[in-house]
From TrEMBL:
The lineage of its organism: Eukaryota, Metazoa, Spiralia, Lophotrochozoa, Mollusca. InterPro entries: Peptidase_S1_PA. It comes from the Eukaryota. This is Uncharacterized protein.
Amino acid sequence: MGEFTDDDLKLISKRSGKREIPKNGHIWTVSPLLCFQTDLSLLSGFQILKEENECNTMIIIKSKCREYEKDKTDKSHPNVDHTKEQLLRIITTCLIKPLHELLEGWLANLKTDVSSNQATDIKTEIEAICHQMAFDDCDDSSSVSVLPIDNTKSILPDDVKNYLFRNSDVNSFGIWMNSSLKVFVRKATDETKLKDELIYLNKNFFERYRLEIEKSKMVMKQTLMQGESLLTEANYEDHKYCEGTLGGFVTKVDDKTKIYALTCNHLFPETNKFAYMGDHQNIKEIGFCVFTTREKSCDFAAIEINGSLVNECDIAFRRDDKKKTNAKVNTKSLQNVGIVHKIGNKTDVTTGIVLSPEYYDKLINESNKEYLFLVKGTNGKFSEEGDSGSLVFC
């Protein structure tokens, strides 16, 4: 509705061909109405729309030719500028409530089939989607400030954490699916004794989180444009290379000509090591490692790109559909993050759910009490050897 131009119509994506509604397909209960603001005052426009149209949401496109009059007390009618990205985002928010209702209905139906492993996996993925919707809804995309990582509060109480680190029978442990504490122990461990001691230590915590003890150990392999293959020389004399992934690029704040590739520490455990790209038959040096660390559970390294290759770098971050996007470091707890994705050299784009937002592995480094997070792929493996260095996006 309203006065619009051909350029305005380009804001709306059109589906090619005629789409047939599938049998028993879900019909959404929302009816967004797209309105282009004219010289008519905003409040007068609202009154006319309310009288003549029945719709759940009115999306007002700001006029380019007049000053926008914003009623800050009325948040029921979202308004956006003339950009396709902002319009897509606000239209998508119209589906949040009905989508939540649809997912809650699915979860209720799945509760009657708790014995099925497939039903459990589906239920877990639906819950992850709900978590992600809540995370996106509360995320302030206008803020790009990065808070110190120390602001991320641990879910595990200190008394439970310290006890598990002291116990020599414990291999690793972590919060599982935001509902339980899973402890991996040696085969000779007295499960009953361990369980009793933990519950006695912090009864309140275990009233909220179920305790699971498993006699095994997690097998965690340190596996070696964003998603490209990155090589480092493992043996100089034999010219053998270790392969990982170029996770993404960053630029220096005060010098945009300085570009750095992000990857992992176990591919570049030392600075000044050269980085290469290629297929082992045609190797090309692209830069050298200027920073690397394993402190506080980080597995991170930065490669300064050679000046002659700066113009060949596609420094944009990519979504799971490979389209460009902005990104910032997430300093919040991963407890409410649902779906994540990465682009790796070996497996390309994969999606997964955060299986454990807080995981401690004593077998890798017993003295390091900083935690990791674990991701489970939603359709096969989330990563394989050669994907190391990939950035994980939520």
